[in-house]
Amino acid sequence: MIIVQAIDALREELKSWRRAGETIAFVPTMGNLHAGHIALVKRAQALGSKVVVSIFVNPTQFDRQEDLAAYPRTLTEDCAKLQAAGADLIFTPTPALMYPSGGLATKVEVPGVSEWLEGASRSGHFTGVSTVVCKLFHMVQPDVAVFGEKDFQQLMLIRQMVRDLDMDIHIEGLPTVRESDGLAMSSRNGYLTTVERKLAPSFHLILREVVDALHKGRQDYASLQIEAAKSLESRGFRPDYVEIRRAVDLLPAQVEDTDVVVLGSAWLGKARLIDNIPLTLKKVTETS
Ligand code: PAF
């Protein structure tokens, strides 16, 4: 496994692989890797002959400075995990290499999908994500890139950017990897205290209750969303949103929509948790 920090060194290595006919599968990360990231690497191995993983805590996607400062940086452990998983190259650029002018200059904006839900709660977050992913795609020029569905909106935003900018990259989404108690794996779970960690799986359970209610035929989506938020509050969370949206474009779901996703975000202590459950509803048929 090769570790490179410089963009030129990355390009040289990738050029020689491409000349040799290798196909490149890419997994962009911010490090502090857990089993969810390793699942992305394993999927990448099935899709390309060489796997490149980037580790870069991207400052431009943090809306709060304290979150950026506190974000866990565990490069040595991450490299060991990637070596064991069989990654071929790790790209670890510094902020100065990624942003020579000190911050965002040229920006990639994806209007619409970047404005709701996470975009509404975290000002500038998605501009930071689309810009850094676009830059990384230009540097790596992968055939395929793999992302987790836990960040459902991020995945949709990247797919939209790739379509709009005619990037010749297949975007693969992978289902959320969960702890045995249902909590979605996330680097931010490390912010939870022992007591909060015990409470945290109820976030997923409450979203699952919404899913069960939908499967049972409830169509009062607004009330379901309010009930779920109240349920979160009663268990000590500070909910940001619980929403039932169309899986295809994340617009508010209507009763005739069949492919939907229940998305939620809530604070528990210092951790802002996000999760989602996609589901397919039976078509509502007219009865005479
Ligand atoms: O999902 C993440 O870890 C980040 O948002 C990403 C895609 C690596 C961009 O910094």
Automatic annotation (TrEMBL):
Domain of life: Bacteria
GO molecular-function terms, A-Z: pantoate-beta-alanine ligase activity
Binding residue positions for (R)-pantoate: 61, 154
Subunit structure: Homodimer.
Family the UniProt entry places it in: Belongs to the pantothenate synthetase family.
Function: Catalyzes the condensation of pantoate with beta-alanine in an ATP-dependent reaction via a pantoyl-adenylate intermediate.
Protein name as catalogued: Pantothenate synthetase
Organism: Thiothrix litoralis
